[in-house]
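Final report, closing paragraph on structural work. Over the funding period we assembled a curated collection of sequence-structure pairs, and we close with a single example.
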Amino acid sequence: MSSINVITESEVDRGWRFECTASGDRKVTLTLQWVEYNHWCPVGNQPPSEVACAVLTFLEQAGADIPDAFDAGRVRRLHADADSAIREALDTTG
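Its predicted structure, as stored:
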């Protein structure tokens, strides 16, 4: 079971920044660009915070090290199965 919580969400240039907790009390800053949001959630039926949670949950389930701060797009470059897993977690089509 995932232990991801979004504490704050703010709009930034070209996307959003989230302050989250992962794996218990560990604080993580995640940025999510519009381009990644549109890729993972092409119909726009999930709030950006849900996409952020799906990204962090994917990393937890993959057993990957979660950096203290990173851009969500990095996950797509480092994990070949990230796109399909995140889309499946969000149950989006497109």
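The chain is about 40% helix and 30% strand. The chain has one domain: 5-90. We thank the funder for supporting this effort.
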